[in-house]
Amino acid sequence: MEDLGYSFGSAVREGTFMWTDYIIYALFGIITIISWIVQQALQSKFKKYSQVELPFSGKELAEKMLRDNGIDDVQVVSTEGQLTDHYNPSNRTVNLSQGVFDKRTVAAAAVAAHECGHAVQHSKSYAFLSLRSALVPAVNISSKWMPWILLLGIVFVQYTAIPLGIGIALFAITTLFSFVTLPVEIDASRRAVAWLEEAQITTAETTPMAKDALRAAAYTYVIAALSSLATLLYYVAIFMKRR
Ligand SMILES: [Zn+2]
Fold first, then answer.
1. Which of 9, 37, 170, 198 has its Cβ near the most Cβ atoms within 10 Å?
2. pLDDT of 74-102, one tens digit each?
3. DSSP letter at 77?
């Protein structure tokens, strides 16, 4: 015990352990737990609102929302898999998964309208969507090289700080990307709920359900961004305490 205490004390004195380490490890722990809770909440909410029926299918209301927003060059297509719904700006398609495309439920309506929200953002050149799209090439390059450069950076940190510094810069791009994604996602959901209500697709009873489902989805993006920031701080801490 005394030995442990002594080596721990000397490690603190020599700077191998830093208070920032404890904060970062605690942060990782908290984020992991919250991330799990958020995922469970999202699944249970979507399951719940998949039981509430609406008169329109995901495809039908997506096409109506696009028309109502004066968009006539975007196709609504069905895509394989679960939770694979997305808007593709390069070929102008709203891609809806099987659980959404032909389903007539509040959950399907929320997802379909959200993806159309991205198409509306695109047609209006919404600033954060443009910024996000501009970051995509840099993020792709970063994701490809970053793990290797960070690994080299940590292995050789005692000799040179250059690879770790480059790795941190690349990681910062992906962190920035995950934060720019937040307003894009929240705005798409806001547009979705506003339209669902205005077009009377949802009622006073079902609008709050659609809002609730989309809020649960938004939390997963918030957690992803915070998790990315915590990882960035972890590498910055290694960089700062190098000798
Ligand atoms: Zn989205």
1. 170
2. 999 999 988 899 999 999 999 999 999 99
3. E
pLDDT of the residue at 16: 56
pLDDT, tens digit (0-9, with 9 covering 90-100), for 180-239: 999 999 999 999 999 999 999 999 999 999 999 999 999 999 999 999 999 999 899 889
Which candidate, 12, 11, 15, 13, places its Cα nearest to that of 238?
A: 15
- For residue 17, what pLDDT band results from cuts at 50, 70 and 90? low
What sign for the dihedral angle of Cα 217, 203, 64, 54?
positive
Ligand 1 centroid vs 13 CA: distance in angstroms?
Answer: 48
**Active-site hit among 115, 185, 198, 205:** 115
* CA–CA gap between residue 97 and residue 86 (Å, rounded): 9
For residue 97, give every residue at least 6 positions away whose Cβ sits within 8 Å of its Cβ, in sequence order, or none.
78, 79, 80, 81, 82, 83, 84, 85, 111
- Domain borders along the chain are 19-240
Q: How many whole angstroms from 11 Cα to the centroid of ligand 1?
A: 46
Q: 173-187: buried (b, 16+ CB within 10 Å) or exposed (e) per residue?
A: ebbbbbbbbbbbbbb
Distance 109 CA to ligand 1 centre (A): 14
Q: Is 185 a catalytic residue?
A: no
C-alpha of residue 127 to centroid of ligand 1, in Å: 15
Three-state DSSP class for residue 191 = helix
